UniProtKB/TrEMBL annotation:
The keyword Repeat applies. GO terms for molecular function: ATP binding; ATP hydrolysis activity. Belongs to the ABC transporter superfamily. This is ABC transporter ATP-binding protein. Coiled coil: none annotated. InterPro entries: AAA+_ATPase (IPR003593), ABC_carbohydrate_import_ATPase (IPR050107), ABC_transporter-like_ATP-bd (IPR003439), ABC_transporter-like_CS (IPR017871), P-loop_NTPase (IPR027417). Residues 9-240, 257-508 form the ABC transporter domain. It is a peripheral membrane protein. Keywords: ATP-binding, Cell membrane, Membrane, Nucleotide-binding, Repeat, Sugar transport, Translocase, Transport. GO terms for cellular component: plasma membrane. Pfam families: ABC_tran.
Length: 524
């Protein structure tokens, strides 16, 4: 920031209380013109609470916010937008029944026809490499495509400051590169970005300054370009972040999940059909499935979990049983566990407590006893609450109360609870879709180690992920999905990023088969 120039935004002593709990405790922060400023911290450090105050969603309990040198109040998001503040949320604020254009229109203060808005949004999305169909219904879109809506919607508001909360967590590397180009353009125009991310390599690459929060307080500031990912992680958590101790590939583990010739027609016009998918996963194995968003990952998860049973019962075999036509509860009773990619509304009900969410994931007999009342119902209720506490302790879930609503937890802490909820059952087969989306380095390490430990205990684990670092960290074997087709699985030790990229691009067969372990040395 040039000497003598007023900062774009500054906050002094900003505090937010929830009862006696201080989510933000006397935060000081300054953002200059034309700067990309990182906001770092563990899940639950206070980052989301801070930016919600800056965007008018929460009212500060104490402290001041100044905009262009003058103290201001931001009572609601409309007031924030009028000042010139835009925001992209980590959890989507979209109406699934509406189209892309209709969702964008709801956030704009200016009056513009849907036809004109559709044209403008389509042009902007193509220009920034985040293509969208303005007429598509949100319910039919992948998580990655929904994130594009949020980004385009914010850019359409032409903000002076844009707050991005984990914007690349569901983007491909190519999409992220396009976003970064956009951010550099905004910076060159004198606009500023407050950038929240747990991908520390991104922070090093694009951010000019970084402010670190821990337990609601500012604990440091730095030039991230002068740091390493390890040193940034250490600043965030206050200690070294442990690596993951990988499981050795199983020699001859028993087959736990077998998929043969699975084909699924799309349920909606925008869904991806599955085409002749086959895989075999043995006890002790972690099969990681890589892929670009929207290539059939969600459809594959739905088919494996039984959320949408398939026509051919024999296409999916779980521990030797044909389960293609069975639903999710019946598959759970056979020893399977499932973690979908979307935490809010799919993996958990935000308004319900952690114990109630745990109860919902148990089998029908447990739920019946719980609801029946009387002595047995009280025993079941007590056991569910005990299990919720046990899971929270096991996964280091940080929360503001004994049994809070799921929606009150930060994204990473809720993710730790959801993963722990499935691990608590010690499933023979666990299918996880995007296990560490929006999770800080410490929490991601804990989740990945828990998945590896489950495999070490003799379970089969299937991890669907867009994060290649994560894939190399946990996998014993790797496959890729492209346009609904799944490649062969190869030993992780023989794979490189280049080979995975080829598979993700849809090139399967002999040309992509790794030939020597030595070739994989460059993967790490």
């Amino acid at each position: 920031m040039p000497e003598g120039q007023e900062p774009l935004l500054s906050v002094t002593g900003l505090t937010k209380l929830f009862g006696s709990f201080k989510a933000c405790d006397g935060i000081d922060l300054t953002i200059g013109h034309g700067e990309i400023h990182a906001l770092l911290g563990e899940n639950g450090a206070g980052k989301s609470t801070l930016v919600k105050m800056l965007f008018g969603i929460l009212a500060p309990s104490a402290g001041e916010i100044s905009w262009l040198g003058g103290e201001t109040a931001i009572p609601n998001p409309a007031a924030a937008r009028r000042l010139g503040i835009g925001m992209v949320f980590q959890h989507f604020s979209l109406f699934e029944a509406l189209t892309v254009a209709e969702n964008i229109a709801l956030s704009l203060d200016e009056k513009i026809s849907i036809a004109d808005l559709s044209k403008k949004a389509a042009e902007l999305s193509v220009a920034y490499g985040l293509p969208l169909d303005p007429d598509a219904h949100v319910a039919d879109l992948s998580v990655g495509e929904r994130q594009r809506i949020e980004i385009v919607r914010a850019l359409l508001q032409n903000p002076k400051l844009i707050i991005l909360d984990e914007p690349t967590s569901v983007l491909t590397p190519q999409e992220a590169d396009k976003l970064f180009e956009t951010l550099f353009k905004l910076k060159a125009e004198g606009r500023s970005v407050l950038y929240i991310s747990h991908r520390l390599e991104e922070v090093q690459r694009i951010c000019d300054r970084a402010t670190v929060l821990r337990h609601g307080r500012v604990t440091g500031a730095c030039d991230p370009r002068q740091q390493t990912p390890a040193s940034l992680a250490r600043m965030m958590v206050g200690a070294e972040v442990a690596g993951v101790e990988k499981v050795e590939p199983p020699a001859d583990g028993e087959i736990q999940l077998q998929v043969t010739g699975l084909s699924v027609t799309p349920r909606t016009p925008f869904a991806m059909p599955l085409k002749n998918v086959s895989m075999t996963v043995r006890a002790g194995e972690v099969l990681a499935i890589a892929g670009v968003a929207g290539n059939g990952q969600s459809e594959l998860f739905d088919a494996l979990s039984g959320e949408y049973p398939v026509r051919d019962a024999d296409a999916i075999r779980l521990r030797g049983r044909s389960v293609g036509r069975l639903g999710i509860n019946e598959r759970r009773l056979l020893g399977a566990g499932f973690v979908p990619e979307e935490r809010h509304g799919h993996a958990a009900v935000p308004a319900m407590s952690l114990s109630e969410n745990l109860f919902l994931s148990r089998n029908a007999s447990d739920r019946s006893a719980y609801l029946s009342g009387g002595k047995l119902g009280l025993i079941r209720h007590s056991r569910v609450q005990q299990a919720a506490r046990r899971i929270s302790e096991m996964m280091d879930v940080r929360k503001s109360g004994e049994d809070p609503a799921a929606g009150s937890l930060s994204g990473g802490n809720l993710q730790k609870f959801i993963v722990g909820r499935e691990l608590d059952r010690q499933p023979s087969v666990l299918v996880v879709n995007q296990p560490t989306w929006g999770v800080d380095a410490g929490a991601a390490s804990r989740i990945r180690q828990a998945l590896v430990d489950l495999a070490k205990s003799g379970s089969a684990v299937i991890v669907i992920s867009q994060d290649l670092d994560e894939i190399f960290e946990v996998a014993t074997s790797i496959a890729a999905i492209s346009e609904g087709r799944l490649s062969d699985a190869y030993p992780a030790a023989t794979m490189t990023r280049e080979r995975i990229g080829i598979l993700m691009g849809g090139v399967h067969g002999q040309d992509t088969a790794p030939s020597t372990v030595a070739e994989s040395a460059h993967a790490h």
